[in-house]
Structures are given as C-alpha cells and as structure tokens.
Amino acid sequence: MDSELARVLGSVVANATPLVIASLGETITERVGVINLSLDGSLQLAAMVAFVTAYASGNAMLGLAAGLIAGLLVALLILFSNIALRQDQVAVGFVLTLLAADLAQFLGQNYTRIPGPTFPTIPIPLLRDIPFLGTVFFNHNALVYFSFILLAATWFVMYRTRWGLALRAVGERPAAAFARGTNVTRTRYLYTAIGGALVGVAGASYSLAIKAGWANPAVMRGDGWIALAIVIFGGWHPLRVAFGAYLFTGLRALASTIQQTTEFPLVLVNAVPWVLMILTLLLVSSGLVERLMLLSPPWAQRLLRNFLRSAPPVALGTQFTRE
After folding, report:
1. Could you give the percent of the chain with pLDDT greater than 90?
2. What's the CA gap between 43 and 20, in Å, rounded?
3. Which of 88, 96, 79, 85 is nearest to 185 (CA)?
4. Alpha-carbon distance 23 to 19, whole Å?
5. What is the pLDDT of residue 218?
6. What is the pLDDT of residue 184?
7. Higher local confidence (pLDDT), 259 or 39
8. How confident is the model at residue 219, as a pLDDT?
9. Nearest to 55 by CA among 186, 171, 208, 222
10. Mapping DSSP to helix (H, G, I), strand (E, B) and coil, where does residue 141 land?
C-alpha cells in the first residue's frame, strides 16, 4: 500500500513540475508589479520551440535553452509595451497569448507526434533508497529537481535578501522605492525577464519531459490560465503557490482515476480545485485571519501575515512615471 501511494505521489510531483515553475515565474513577475497575461500562449510557444530545437539538434538542453528564450522575449515585450509605448499590460498580454498560441500551432504543424530528445530520469544515489520519500521526491528527471531548488531559492531571495526587498518594494510602492534609490524600471525589467524565462522553462518541461513531444492542439493548452489562478490562490507567496500547483495536479489525477473507475460526473470532479481556491480566498478575505492574528503570539502573527497574504501587490499592473 505504501509503495503504491508513493508511486502515485511521485507521479503527481513529476506532473506538477511545469505548473510549479510557471506559477513561481508569474509570482516573481507580479510581485514586481507586472501582469504577464500571455502565460497560456507563452507555455505553448516555448514548448513548441523547445521540442523543435531539441529535435533538430538532438540535444534536450539546447531545446530547454530555446524555450527559456521564447518565454523571456514574450514577457519582455509586454513590459516594453507598457514602459516605452505606454500600453496597458493586460491588453497587450491578452493579445500576445492568442498570438503566441497561434504561432506555436502554425510553426509546429510539421513536428506533431514525432519522437525527440527528452530529459531522462536521474535517481539520486542514497536518497532514492529512503523508504517512501525516495520514490516520491528523488526518482525524477533534472527539471523536477530544478523545481525543488527554484521553490526554495524564490522564497529565500524574496524574503531574506535585499534583492527580494527591492522586488517587493517596487511591486507595492514604486515611488517610495525610487525615493530610496531603487531603479524601478531596471528592477521591473530584471524580474520580468526572470519570470518570463521560468515560464519558458515550464513550457519546455512539457514537451521535453512530462508529455514528451509536440501535439496540435497543444496538450498544455489552458494550463497558463490555471497557473494565473494558482498565483491568486497562493496569495502571491511562493510556498502557497507551489502548494496550489501540487494540489491542483493531485485533484486532476484524482479526477482521471474516478473517471476510469466510476460513473461519477467528471464535470463535478473537475470543479473541485476551483471550489477549493474560491473557499480559500473567501476564508482569507472574511476577516477570520485578522481575528486569529489578534489572539496569536507574535511569531504566529508573522506566520499568518506572510503565509496567508491574499491582497495583490498594490502597484500590480500600473505604470511608474519618474517625476
């Protein structure tokens, strides 16, 4: 029983990897005040570019690099349109998600359903032999391990370094950050580039590891919107965002299992993740968290304030004009 549960959980961890990476990338982008609404199209374009590059070169790492660049360029185009051309981030992002998805389908039509290079499974010596945990966490490909490192690094940089303080300050109060000497425009370009690059890596992880190959329509179509919802569900906090990605993937796997074994309406099962997200948002916004904070010791108040944050960054989606 334990071995079967470990196998199932290991599959959930592996399949959640693209959502974890994409959601963390979008979290970084939005915490600096930029909305990358092109996420769904960026994932598809990056997946296609990554697979075609890997197929043509015979090298999965080159494919990953190409997918990274594709995601980075789309994200930077949104920010450039906002800063240099004074266009609305949401409008530009929505147009780009449609454009990127159509480009992926058109440019990748000759590469559908053909085999290509993939990232192999790399069990970690010693750690893979740990009962239960070894199967769940330490018997995967390099992209899964990268998602673990990314989660820890994102949390540490965001909350334990001066770089993270600058990132959050620009997303909350860009004028105040500028007054303290932070270059708001450069900071937004930097972290938007990082977030977009991670979205590109997430797209590449679909076509080079999780669901190897390219299909038309793309198998990850719609996952960009899911990642955007997970960022909101996670309250723009890396740990909660990753939890949301794993939870959603687990419930999706449960829905697939129920569909195969029972006649329970699949539509109702697929609605469970969204219901949980809505309930969580209602719980956090109801004032219950604030009341719990008043009754809690100082350390618990800090934990609740940081981990149960529900409000978006104050300057999210806004333009900053240097006066």
Report:
1. 63
2. 13
3. 79
4. 6
5. 81
6. 95
7. 39
8. 84
9. 208
10. strand
Overall pTM surpassing 0.85 (yes/no): yes
Q: Domain residues of the chain, as ranges? A: 2-307
Backbone angles phi, psi at 70, to 5 degrees: -60, -45
> Which residues 6+ apart lie within 8 Å of 124 measured at CB?
138, 139, 145
| Residue 141 vs residues 15, 24, 48, 119, 308: alpha-carbon distances, Å | 11, 19, 20, 6, 32
In this predicted structure, the answer to whether residue 323 has a pLDDT above a threshold of 80 is no
Q: How far apart are CA 285 and CA 278, in angstroms?
A: 10
Dihedrals phi, psi of 240, to nearest 5 degrees: -70, -35
Token output for 26: 């979008």
What is 255-319 written as a DSSP string? Answer: HHHHHHH--S-HHHHHHHHHHHHHHHHHHHHTTHHHHHHHTS-HHHHHHHHHHT--SPPTTTT--
Domain 2-307, second-level architecture: Orthogonal Bundle (1.10)
Provide φ and ψ at 287, rounded to 5°. 95, -5
**Helices 184-205 and 162-172, interaxial angle, to 10°?**
100
51 Cβ partners below 8 Å, 6+ apart? 63, 108, 111, 116, 204, 207, 208, 213, 214
Given pLDDT bands bounded at 50, 70 and 90, which one contains residue 254? confident
